[in-house]
Write a structure and sequence with these properties.
Strand content: 25-35%
Helix content: 40-55%
Number of strands: 6
Radius of gyration: 18 Å
Mean pLDDT: 77
Structural class: alpha+beta
Largest sheet: 6 strands, antiparallel
Distance between the termini: 32 Å
Order of helices and strands: HHHHEEEEEE
Number of helices: 4
Shape: flat
Strand order of the largest sheet: 1-2-3-4-5-6
Low-confidence stretches: 10-22
Amino acid sequence: MKKVLMSLLAACVLTVSTISTTGCIGSFTAFNKLREWNQKLTGVKFINWIVFLVLSIIPVYYIALFVDTLILNSIEFWIGSNPLAAGDTYHETDANGNSVTAVKMEDGSLYMRLNTKTGESQELVLQKDEDIIRVLDAKGNTLKEAAFAQ
């Protein structure tokens, strides 16, 4: 049980750190949220294409890209987190029925809920401070702390 939870935790940390480590160009959160909204709008490829054309002509896509490029990605570069990224959710279920759900919080921490196929669950919070990542339990007690080089 502990090995399964730690494996899911490690997979989630690697996935989220890969997604959130954007280098110096930023994550283009506003543009990507608009694109994802359009993709989920109907599920009908033709209608999504029409909506894309309308939003391109109006120029909603260009405005989102402009705001991302000049404002949001600059904020992300200088302070390390994008203001629109809070609330982003990641969910993964493995072949055995174990799952992990992670939500990025406004303070930059990552809330995670690990569930096993047997119904056991654990809530964890990952916090990043300078060169240290902490794993906290639901009560805020530090379970693990690791230093990393940037």
